[in-house]
Specification:
Helix 2 packs antiparallel against helix 3 and helix 10 runs antiparallel to helix 11. This protein is mainly α. It is built from 11 helices and no strands.
């Protein structure tokens, strides 16, 4: 073997070793298996270790365990703490549940403006449940100035993303002439059809 071939082989080996998965993924996968098996206490312990080391998916899951009281004492404030840690790292679940916590006042004071900001951040990324929440905020003037046109726009996007609640709300708006939309039974029926499961 030539020296050049050996050098290339060593370089490729080093690159492949560097491409190994993050070892935290394996630990996280094991914790998820423990959750599925109902071993919440062991899962919470494993997730806590990962969360303390800054692993966003584990931070979100640990927050969920605190929210539900599985494997750890139920503690909404602790749940919000972990949701916020995950949210700061752009974790979708963390952002959504942090926004929900501010909207509902669970583990944090009711803060419609912060709820809207976090939902809007996710909505911009195309997450349909957050798009629906943004639409509702515009509809009700919750954390943002009421704006029917924006509400309709976000309802349409959420519906396109598969959120049947958004399609149902649009059907209602057309049926009743709400949100600046005309009374239009045909459009209402069209949006109502989008809430039905697909038939094969």
């Amino acid at each position: 073997m030539s020296r050049r071939f050996l050098a290339v082989l060593l370089l490729l080996s080093a690159l492949l070793l560097g491409c190994e998965r993050d070892p935290r993924q394996n630990q996280y996968r094991k914790a998820m298996q423990q959750l599925v098996q109902g071993d919440y206490r062991s899962a919470a312990f494993a997730l806590n270790t990962l969360a303390e080391n800054g692993y966003a998916p584990a931070q979100f899951r640990l927050g969920s365990l605190y929210r539900l009281g599985l494997g750890v004492p139920r503690n909404q404030r602790q749940a919000v703490y972990w949701f916020e840690k995950a949210a700061q790292q752009d974790d979708v679940g963390g952002q959504y549940w942090l926004a929900e916590s501010y909207r509902r006042g669970k583990g944090a004071p009711v803060t419609p403006e912060l709820a809207f900001q976090w939902f809007h951040r996710l909505a911009e990324r195309g997450y349909a449940p957050a798009q629906y929440q943004v639409a509702l905020a515009y509809t009700e003037g919750r954390g943002v100035v009421r704006d029917d046109r924006e509400a309709v726009r976000w309802l349409q996007q959420a519906s396109a993303g598969g959120c049947t609640d958004a399609a149902r709300r649009l059907a209602q708006a057309y049926r009743n002439g709400e949100l600046g939309l005309p009374l239009d039974p045909q459009q209402a029926a069209e949006w109502e059809r989008k809430t039905q499961p697909a038939r094969f």
